[in-house]
Amino acid sequence: MTQPLLSVRNLTIDYIGEEKDFRAVKDVSFDIAPGEVFGLAGESGCGKSTIAFAISRLHKPPALIRKESRILLDGRDVLSLDRQALSAFRWREVAMVFQSAMNSLNPVLRIETQFYDMLRTHKNMSRVEARERTAEMLTLVDIAPDRMRDYPHQFSGGMRQRIVIAICMALDPKLVVMDEPTTALDVVVQREILQRINELRRSFGFSVLFITHDLGLMVQFCDRIGIMLAGKLVEQNTAEAIYRTPKHDYTKKLWASFPSLHGGVLL
Amino acid sequence: MKNLLQNRKALIGLVIIAFIVFVAIAAPLLTQYDPAARTGRPHQAPSLDHILGTTRIGQDVFARLIYGARTSLAVGFGAGLLITLVGTALGIISGYRGGKTDEIISFFTNMVLVVPNLPLLLVLAAFIGQASPLVIALILGATSWAWGARVTRAETLSVKQKDFVKSAEMMGEPQWRIMTFEIFPNVISIVGINFIGSVIFAIITEATLEFLGLGDPRAISWGTMLYNAQKASALSVGAWWDILTPCFALAFLGIGMSLLNFAVDEIANPRLRTGNHLKRWSLLVRSGEGRL
Amino acid sequence: MAFLLRRLVFYMAAFIAAATTNFFLPRLMPGDPVQIMFSSAGTELPPESLQALKLTFGFVDGPLWQQYLTYLGSIFTGDLGRSIKYFPLPVTSVLGHALIWTVGLMGTATIVSFALGTFLGIVAAWRRGSKFDVVVSVGAIFATSVPAVVTSLIVLFIFGFTLGWFPNGYAADPSLDPAFSLQYIGSLAYHGILPMVTLCTVLIGGFTVTMRNNMINLLGEDYIVMARAKGLSDRHVMLWYAARNALLPTVSSLAIAIGTILGGSLVTEVVYNYPGLGNILYQAILARDYPVIQGQLLIMTATMLIANFIVDVSYVLLDPRLKGA
Fold first, then answer.
1. Which chain C residues have a beta carbon less than 8 Å from that of B207?
2. CA distances from residue B11 to A58, B5, B259 in whole angstroms, order as listed
3. Hey, of A81, A91, A106, which one would you mutate to test binding to chain C, going by the most C CBs within 10 A of its CB?
4. Is the confidence at residue A108, as pLDDT, over 70?
5. What is the per-residue pLDDT across A48-80, written as a single tens digit (0 to 9) for each?
6. How far away is chain B from the Cα of C295, in angstroms, using its nearest Cα?
7. Do A95 and C229 touch (CB under 8 A)?
8. Vertex B81: Cα angle to B77 and B82 (nearest 5)
9. Average pLDDT over residues A234-241
10. Residue A90 carries which DSSP code?
11. Can you tell me the distance from the alpha carbon of A127 to that of A125, in angstroms, rounded to the nearest whole number?
12. How far is CA A112 from CA A104, A129, B90, in A?
């Protein structure tokens, strides 16, 4: 592809124990093009969340990103950013949506405050400017702007996830990482959220790293997909190819274990 | 258990406690003096004859210290055991049975919890008059179980949901059997923490009650040593050995037990550990092998 | 709101429980309850006064429930009887003066140690595994495991007697008359330092450990990770996302700790001869002044319940999830 937005090369991540180490991610390499939706599929514990965290360097000890790893965003070496540069990098270049929005929002702060602290840190906005931007973002995700002074517990699960997406959009990031964003929600809400993300993507042009264990969902939503097994990236291809002509044994197994509603064709 | 012995805090704590217990048991071998008898001149400073000096009445302080250890330890562990038994029983019963039983016991527990402990004990002791260490142990047991009951109940509630309990119920095991053989072994770490905490509490409170004059002044314990020394204005007349000896003894025992307490806490909840368990990690980062 | 109302009802019930304990204690002891209660008066009390005292405490002719109601009636009309040692001073005035000193000492010490202890706990948790954490945690262990009695005596010995930096007791210089003068207030402050230092030492460890553990328990939460992902400064995340949330369980443990704080302050007062409730209780026990002793239990219970209620209100103010409910 022409200059990729995100380039991950030889990513190896260990968890250092008192005596032994656990290799969570083994020499993983993939690219994401600008405006593309790239999916990472695999069962729990295969290392996909570990990769997601590594992109924004959110890991804490005992996690260790090995020295041969490379993560480049728009040509910038993410792994060598100093503290200040990293703070500026986070959210502005890469934003994240976590699995349970129930817990992603600080329960004791108002919604507007959770926008304000980020807007002030990155763009030095005043409260008035921040409120305008917050209203803009909330409208994008269909949440009434006059609710910005409410607390997270006053919203439903689906609404909270939409608020998190709104916070993600606020700085116009280039890449949005979504780690199982809809797993904790019911199917109807799931569909709405994914449609909304797609619309936003088309309007703003960001790329998406979409992580889930639900292969069927992924095939409908993503452009390209990578299959992970025990820390290794075992197959990487377009969604169409993964669906019609899976090459790796594990990918085939994943499809085989997938119950089909119509007893055959999925799409 | 092995974890406990590997934990540095636990080890130090256990050594301290073992040392004190040993000294208490070996008391007759360590001193030739009778702790209650007049064996020297009043308020003698520490000397070769009386290594920790004498009290106002001329008793050997060192002898009183090591014989007193027996009483303080006995009341501490005895009352601690009593408090733990009552608290655990009530906690498991109210947690497991739920419903009305739970409501009543919880209400009662919360009430006891909210009435200030020491003032209540003081009023009780005042009415009883001079309380011997045994009586003190009993009233401690009768009034201080509430915290343990609360904590045990919370733990029981989560264990109650587990599969092996449900299957025992479905097999028709009687409730008392379930509580004793299924629930109890699974809340044992909370019971252990509770026990250690109760012993610490009992030792401190017994000493405090006796210091305030509610114990039997003829008894020989660290608390009564404090009381008698205070009555003799030991600090003002400069007889620091008289009052500081029981002080340091109590502090020493308290620290030992607290170290053990924190160690058990850390083992039950490994996230709370202090100290560097990231040595290898730091080494790797420093040598450039990787980064966060 | 419903939450606070329920708490109030509960506190009222607890207060009545304390009063009930007072009622039954002399009646459960071997011997004549009237004898026990008023024996310290000897032959000094005129018969009418003795009669009035008996009435206050419910020692009237009639069935037990009638005696009980008489006693409750006295309490709720503010009649706690008269002190025998300081006859004819009413118990309420004896205790009233002392209460001010105790609230002053205990209140200030609690606020200072809570603020300091919580702060130390926050930093220790944030810098987990560092030397600071180890020093603070171990220091906290030592501070909490030494009984208040011992800490008071040792502090008094070192700073009062040996070094002579601070006075050895009393609330203020006994030769001064209480007044709003700078001299008197200065003396108050000077005399108050050692008891304050002692109490703070006794209390601070508990708050430190509680806050540290609460912080650590929530450092893995999603909202903490998201806060870091948002590029917020370390300090901001530590204070507004971690500490702000860890404050909630810490404040509720404050409520439970108040009983211990009361006990510790009691002992400190006795050692320093500070004219608070603790010292008065101590003197009353020596003199077997039962009306004061019983009044004591009620006042202390009431103090604790009020303190608990203040903590409840703070909790509601701090946790937005409770405001609406």
1. 147, 149
2. 37, 6, 9
3. A106
4. yes
5. 889 999 999 999 888 899 989 999 998 899 999
6. 10
7. yes
8. 120
9. 89
10. B
11. 7
12. 15, 12, 47
Two tokens at A234? 């075992």
Which pLDDT belongs to residue C238?
92
What is the arithmetic mean of pLDDT over C155-176? 74
The pair of three-digit structure tokens given for residue A132, joined into one six-digit string: 């305008």
Report the sign of the C-alpha dihedral through residues A131, A134, A139, A142, in that order.
negative
CB contacts, 8 Å: C137 with chain B: 262, 274
DSSP C178: P
Nearest CA to A161 out of C217, C222, C323 is that of: C222
Q: Which residues contact B170 (CB under 8 A, 6 or more apart)?
A: none
Q: What is the dihedral of CA A168, A169, A171, A174, to 10 degrees?
A: 90
CB contact (8 A) between residue C262 and residue B118: yes
Distance CA A6, CA A174 (A): 9
pLDDT in tens, C68-85: 888 888 888 888 888 877
Among residues B249, B258, B244, B231, the alpha carbon closest in space to that of C154 is found at B244
Could you tell me the pTM of the whole model? 0.84
**Strands, E, within chain C: which ranges?**
none
Alpha helices in chain A (DSSP H): 48-55, 83-89, 101-104, 111-123, 127-140, 157-169, 187-204, 215-221, 239-244, 249-256
Three-state DSSP class for residue C14: helix
Residue A266's pLDDT band (boundaries 50, 70, 90)? very low
- Residue C220 sits at the vertex; the CA angle it makes with A161 and A194, to the nearest 5 degrees, is 20
Q: What pLDDT, on the 0 to 100 scale, is given for residue C211?
A: 93
Nearest chain B CA: its distance from C180 CA (Å)? 31
Q: Could you say which residues from 83 to 112 on chain C have a Cβ atom under 8 Å away from some Cβ of chain B?
A: none
Show residues of chain C in contact with B119, CB under 8 Å.
262-263, 266, 281, 296-297, 300-301
Cβ proximity of A169 and A204 under 8 Å = yes
User: What pLDDT band is residue A265 in, cutting at 50, 70 and 90?
Assistant: very low
What token pair was written down for B90? 């009530």
Cβ-proximal residues to A39 (8 Å cutoff; 6+ apart), any chain: A209, A210, A211, A212, A218, A221, A222, A224, A225, A226, A239
Q: What pLDDT is attached to residue A136?
A: 92
> Would you list the DSSP string of chain B?
-HHHHHSHHHHHHHHHHHHHHHHHHTHHHH--S-TTS--S-TTPPP-SSSTT-B-TT--BHHHHHHHHHHHHHHHHHHHHHHHHHHHHHHHHHHHHH-HHHHHHHHHHHHHHHHS-HHHHHHHHHHHH-SB-HHHHHHHHHHHS-HHHHHHHHHHHHHHHTSHHHHHHHHTT--HHHIIIIIIHHHTHHHHHHHHHHHHHHHHHHHHHHHHTT-B-TTS-SHHHHHHHHHHTTHHHHT-HHHHHHHHHHHHHHHHHHHHHHHHHHHHHSGGG--S---HHHHHHHHTTSEE-
**Facing residue for B290 by CB, picked from A57, A60, A67:** A67
Q: Hey, what amino acid is at B160?
A: K
pLDDT at A32: 93
C226-265 residues touching A, CB cutoff 8 A: 226-233, 236, 240-241, 244-245, 248
> How many Å apart are CA C159 and CA C258, to the nearest integer?
27
Instruction: Say which residues have a Cβ less than 8 Å from residue C317's Cβ, sequence separation at least 6.
Output: C323
pLDDT in tens, B209-241: 888 888 888 888 898 888 888 888 777 777 788
pLDDT band at A267 (very low <50, low <70, confident <90, very high): very low
Residue A65 to residue B288, Cβ atoms within 8 A: no
Question: Does C138 or C211 have the greater pLDDT score?
Answer: C211
What mean pLDDT is reported for chain C?
Answer: 83
